[in-house]
Amino acid sequence: MSEAQQRPHAVELPTTTAHLNHTVVFASDRRSSAEFLATILGLEVGAPFGPFLPVDLGNGVTLDYYEKRDEPIQGQHYAFLVPEDRFDAMIARLEAAGVTYYADPGHHEPGRVNDLFGGRGAYFDDPDGHNMEIMTRPYLRP
């Protein structure tokens, strides 16, 4: 029996490149923020892992929400490549939650989506002011 077979939860590690595995998202209320994003993206909040509350994105990456109440949360930007056939449902969930979405990262075009790179995209704030982005096509980079 191989070592991997002896360890049922063993995962093959990448050997030729780096892959993002997880990142911490600071929140004033980890449960509220994790549930907000999971609801919009159509995902679920996982079981607590130490001080973290994970949202598994389904591609090997986890957002680990960490509660930080002793100082202001510095807003970050998180961009999610989402399936075209699920984009409209995400927009509908934003609307149902009363969350304004924008076509641009500066939040100057409310209630609109963009058509960058032949896809669709929108930006919105989470409860702590993180600038979230959903897009159906990745950015074309030089």
3D architecture notes:
Helix content is 20%, strand content 24%. The chain has helices at residues 3-6, 30-41, 84-96, and strands at 22-27, 52-56, 62-67, 77-81, 101-102, 121-125, 131-135. The longest helix is centred in the middle third of the chain and has 13 residues, at 84-96. The radius of gyration is 17 Å and the shape is globular. The strands form two sheets. Strands 4-7-6-5 form a four-stranded mixed beta sheet, covered by helices on one side. The protein contains three helices and seven strands. The termini are far apart. Strand 6 and strand 7 form a beta hairpin. The chain is an alpha/beta fold and 142 residues long. Mean pLDDT is 92; it is low at 1-5.
In brief, what are we looking at here?
This protein is of the alpha/beta class and 142 residues long. The protein has three helices and seven strands. The model is unreliable at 1-5 (pLDDT under 50).
Topology:
Elements: H1 3-6, E1 22-27, H2 30-41, E2 52-56, E3 62-67, E4 77-81, H3 84-96, E5 101-102, E6 121-125, E7 131-135
Parallel strand pairs: 1-3, 4-7
Antiparallel strand pairs: 2-3, 5-6, 6-7
* Overall outline: globular
How can the largest sheet be summarized?
4 strands, mixed
Structural class: alpha/beta
- What is the strand tally? 7
Q: Name the average pLDDT.
A: 92
Please bin the fraction of helical residues: 10-25%
Low-confidence stretches: 1-5
